[in-house]
Amino acid sequence: MQQMAQHGDVDLMEVRAVEKFLCIIxxxxxxxxxxxxxxxxxxxxxxxxxxxxxxxxxxxxxxxxIKLVAISDKLxxxxxxxxx
Length: 84
Prior knowledge:
Blueprint: H1 2-6, H2 14-24, H3 30-39, H4 47-62, E1 68-71, E2 74-78, H5 79-83
């Protein structure tokens, strides 16, 4: 919001800042931004909450999938547990 004020934006309401922020996020977050626009009330949403939600999505994407090991068509253990 400080950057908006420095660039001459006189409408410094949190709602306006959230709207602008959702317009400039990277393309990979566009589905998340669309969901927030459709499901959440901007009047109750802060920039910190939007950033927190986007970070949660990013953290979820970074978790590597667990590889499962099957022997004789039976699922027994994860690869890490099998090797242990």
